[in-house]
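If you are new to this repository, start here. Below is one unmodified record pulled from the training split, so you can see the exact layout before writing a loader.
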Amino acid sequence: MIKQGLEIKQTQKLSPLQIQTIKLIELPIQDLEQKIRSEIEENPVLEDVHDSENGQDTGDVSLDEIKEDDYIPSYRTRVNNWGKDPRPEYNTFSVKTSFNQSLMDQLGCRNLTQQEHDIAAFIIGSLDSDGYLRRDVESIVDDLAFRAGIQTTEDEVLRMLAVIQDFEPAGVGARDLRECLLIQLRNCRQSEDVVNAERILQDCFQDFTNKHFQKIMSKTGLTEDQLKRAMSRILKLNPSPGGDISGGYDDHVQQIVPDFVLEDHDGELSFSMPRFSVPELRVNKKYADMLMSAKGSSEREQKEAATFVKQKLDSAKWFVEALKQRQNTLNRTMDAILKYQYDFFATGDETKLKPMVLKDIAERTGFDISTISRVVNSKYIETYFGIYPLKYFFSEGMENKEGEEVSTRELKKVLLECVAAEDKKKPLTDEQLVLEMEKHGYKVARRTIAKYRGQLGIPLARWRKEL
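And here is the target side for that same chain:
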């Protein structure tokens, strides 16, 4: 026998205001500015007061004072949801030139034919993000013919590659690590150390990568002291020339505008929220007057116009209210982070960072974890000791010997100190690093050491060995 029943589930539907607030919370400040501009362009009820100075007495009334059936005269339509304080001007940080654009700028300074320029530009477009050309010349010749309609030869492509390899940063356009390092050395003043470094890379590259120092000295006739100096010169070279400019960024200009600025008032820490190019909003006089003229009118056209304006007015009210809620949410979240990580913000010492996860801040603010995640994403704070993404302050942790919880950043810092202090002739293995960490009061498993070592870019012990 089949039983039938009715199951009632309670679901929560987000209001238009909640949806809009969520979307605004996710935006960093420069995207928020663009969003406000777009809203002004799309909603004729709204104006930017800085774009419309007509000298009239606009009053000082917010949109949420407008009631459902009110028709407000133009002198009462000012919206000022940011207060009367002047908005400070903040510079953008970490503005980086596109790697490809930098190379193209240098290409434009060379005296080349149009075909040579086009071939070189194609090669630049074929470089990896680290500045290497990892495609063979023959395939580039074929692609130039089929994709760009340029008939060329391998010799011409190699000539244009040589032009690019003369660009900054030194080493760009190399086809492997060996060529990259040699290009950089050839751009240096040819001292004894540089010449010996070139010999090592040219004649003993495999022994160099395997750190077979005795074989290198046997093949080259270099003394141990000469080898040390040459190796020191090589280790100062850049194995990833594309990183000098691109820094791992995508091929467009990157800008960081701090959403928060740390402030110190006589030892009491607080923060401000920069209002970078955020416009004030008000109801357009033309449409406010249209609402007034429609009051009590029976004419159909005026009624329809009033309905249209009322819809736009409601949309404006939601938008401004969403802006306020965004500001409140960011303010409460940053306040909770500041109090949780107060010791770090007071000193700038990474070891003072406490283990902190999204749930910790969610519990302190009363917001959902998803809301905290949206706030943290793409937001930055400017401090006296640098600019940090809010994500930086979140990390898991573990206990030390005293049972106190410490952050993974503290553990990584101690690990770096252990590696820095090791005897480079006999670098510490992961098992030995476990013992060193225990001496410092941290009980860490070998696999955890290997994990942190990889995240910090610390090579295996045999790769850290020096003469």
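Two things worth knowing about this chain: The mean pLDDT is 77. The two ends are 84 Å apart (CA to CA).
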